[in-house]
Write a structure and sequence with these properties.
Helices cover 43% and strands 21% of the residues. It is α/β, with parallel strands linked by helices. The protein has a single domain, classed as 3-Layer(aba) Sandwich (Rossmann fold), CATH 3.40.50.150. It has a 7-stranded mixed beta sheet with strand order 3-2-1-4-5-7-6. Strand 4, helix 7 and strand 5 form a beta-alpha-beta unit. Helix 3 packs parallel to helix 4 and helix 8 packs antiparallel against helix 9. It binds S-adenosylmethionine (SAM).
């Protein structure tokens, strides 16, 4: 409950970087982490835009002894909450003690290029950014993935269509440009999509590989 209140407060204070009114459900967190959970061998995972830690908590329960997790969060308030309420959970004890979990406070753009990751799990609210920001962030994240690495993120079902219908003027043009860019990227990179109805609002968990893999989208756009 405290996390939900903290989240709503931050949304009111920073709607243009938080981009959601509620943290992700555990069902969405599970869907986002599926490719990582199915993987074998030592992995380096990056979570971007961790917020109050809805997905981080799940990662804590599935992180294997040989794996490492980097967490990026822009908001100092959320970063404090992650340090205080999430990284102190028993499931993180060993990994934190062994310095296999690191929290980076600030824009993810600042840490990009320092490491190569097997999995990037993102909570970034792409649909509220400009198309240039989306392009820049996705390009940077793509360069931070190892060959064959997976980028996972979520998108609220129908939000892009609804935004296009209710927005006006330059906001509408921005939303349309971002939507076109995302639709094109989904067609090129997405290899899996899960529908998560048990989330507020319902969402798609999308999984991309940035190099052509021969695999096709199993869920459609
Ligand atoms: C929609 S919330 C998602 C929170 C959480 N992952 C969840 O699923 O409940 C988006 C989060 O991304 C963070 N964020 C926005 N821009 C960012 C950036 N450039 N770098 C790192 N985090 C960012 C916001 O502060 C916010 O916590």
């Amino acid at each position: 409950m405290r996390q939900n209140i903290n989240f709503i407060r931050q949304f009111i204070a920073n709607p243009h970087s938080v981009g959601a009114v509620a943290p992700s459900s555990r069902h969405l967190a599970r869907a986002l982490c599926e490719p990582y959970v199915r993987s074998t061998g030592a992995c380096h995972v990056l979570e971007v835009g961790a917020g109050t830690g809805a997905v981080t908590r799940h990662l804590g329960t599935v992180l294997r002894a040989e794996d490492r997790l980097d967490i990026s969060e822009l908001s100092p308030v959320f970063a404090d909450a992650l340090r205080r309420d999430v990284l102190t959970m028993p499931c993180f004890a060993e990994a934190v003690a062994q310095r296999r979990v690191r929290l980076f406070e600030g824009p993810v753009q600042d840490i990009i290029g320092r490491q190569q990751y097997d999995f990037i799990v993102s909570g970034l609210p792409l649909t509220i950014f400009t198309v240039d920001q989306v392009r820049e962030i996705l390009d940077a994240l793509r360069r931070s993935l190892k060959p064959g690495g997976v980028f996972s993120y979520f998108e609220y079902i129908g939000l892009r269509r609804i935004s296009g219908a209710v927005m006006t003027g330059s906001e509408r043009r921005r939303a349309r440009d971002v939507s076109r860019f995302l639709t094109q990227s989904i067609a090129t990179y997405q290899f899996d999509r899960r529908t998560v109805l048990l989330n507020l609002p319902p969402a798609y968990a999308r999984h991309w590989r940035f190099e052509p893999s021969g695999e096709r989208d199993v869920g459609g756009a």
